[in-house]
């Protein structure tokens, strides 16, 4: 059974458990791709609904809840804790995550990680909160002390964008990502065919596919961007786009 099939099976198990318990059932933390699958699959189960929450409105990794229609759980019911460091550290996201995973913690139990000017915040599943407070004492060679804080005290980090006005010969994927991320046509094709490009969190493999307004495009190692709007054609028939690139 592949990862996709396993996740579909997990959703079915959650729906059945929700019937048995008569209440909400919660998944582990899901990435945006799995959130899309979960939201789509729940329609197969009559009388069931779902919602997602990861600590605040802008979190990328979220927990899925499945419940009887009309009985959505409160945000406070989600099994999420927030860990905050007492120290400010000059580290990267991968340093923090790597230190957590080195403690044999499952990735699915860890949500978003925010590295701020004066502290670090980590959203985690409630079952591992005490363990991490006790054991996560070093990141990137730096000593660190974490404590559990109220989820309402967590920083709400809004995505930041840089607006780009670009002109493309067509809405082909390779043309669009080439312009946004400064790639040659050949490089853009290699990224797509190499499985390094996603549109709306779904991996794509055809350089000639058409990009639409509203699509979010991610290119591994290069970044992410949203095609915000189209503003007409040039005299030569090229398309003018406004793109919001994540920074």
TrEMBL record:
<dbReference type="InterPro" id="IPR040591">
    <property type="entry name" value="RqcP2_RBD"/>
</dbReference>
<keyword id="KW-0694">RNA-binding</keyword>
<dbReference type="Pfam" id="PF17774">
    <property type="entry name" value="YlmH_RBD"/>
</dbReference>
<dbReference type="Pfam" id="PF01479">
    <property type="entry name" value="S4"/>
</dbReference>
<feature type="domain" description="RNA-binding S4">
    <location>
        <begin position="171"/>
        <end position="232"/>
    </location>
</feature>
<dbReference type="InterPro" id="IPR036986">
    <property type="entry name" value="S4_RNA-bd_sf"/>
</dbReference>
<dbReference type="InterPro" id="IPR012677">
    <property type="entry name" value="Nucleotide-bd_a/b_plait_sf"/>
</dbReference>
<dbReference type="GO" id="GO:0003723">
    <property type="term" value="F:RNA binding"/>
</dbReference>
<dbReference type="InterPro" id="IPR002942">
    <property type="entry name" value="S4_RNA-bd"/>
</dbReference>
<protein>
    <recommendedName>
        <fullName>RNA-binding S4 domain-containing protein</fullName>
    </recommendedName>
</protein>
């Amino acid at each position: 059974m592949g990862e996709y099939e396993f996740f579909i099976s997990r959703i079915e198990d959650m729906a059945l458990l929700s019937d048995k318990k008569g209440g909400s059932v919660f998944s582990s933390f899901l990435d945006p791709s799995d959130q899309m699958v979960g939201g789509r699959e729940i329609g197969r189960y009559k009388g069931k609904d779902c919602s997602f929450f990861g600590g605040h409105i802008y979190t990328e990794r979220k927990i899925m809840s499945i419940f009887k229609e009309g009985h959505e759980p409160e945000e406070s019911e989600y099994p999420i804790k927030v860990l905050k460091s007492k120290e400010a550290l000059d580290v990267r996201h991968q340093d923090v995550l790597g230190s957590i995973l080195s403690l044999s913690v499952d990735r699915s139990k860890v949500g978003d990680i925010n590295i701020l000017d004066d502290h670090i915040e980590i959203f985690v599943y409630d079952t591992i909160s005490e363990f991490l407070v006790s054991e996560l004492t070093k990141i990137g060679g730096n000593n660190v002390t974490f404590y559990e804080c109220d989820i309402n005290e967590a920083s709400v980090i809004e995505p930041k964008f840089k607006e780009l006005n670009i002109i493309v010969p067509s809405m082909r994927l390779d043309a669009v990502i080439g312009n946004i991320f400064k790639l040659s046509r050949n490089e853009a094709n290699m990224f797509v065919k190499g499985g390094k490009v996603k549109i709306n969190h779904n991996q794509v493999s055809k350089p000639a596919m058409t990009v639409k307004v509203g699509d979010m495009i991610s290119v591994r190692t290069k970044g992410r961007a949203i095609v915000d709007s189209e503003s007409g054609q040039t005299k030569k028939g090229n398309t003018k786009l406004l793109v919001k690139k994540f920074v």
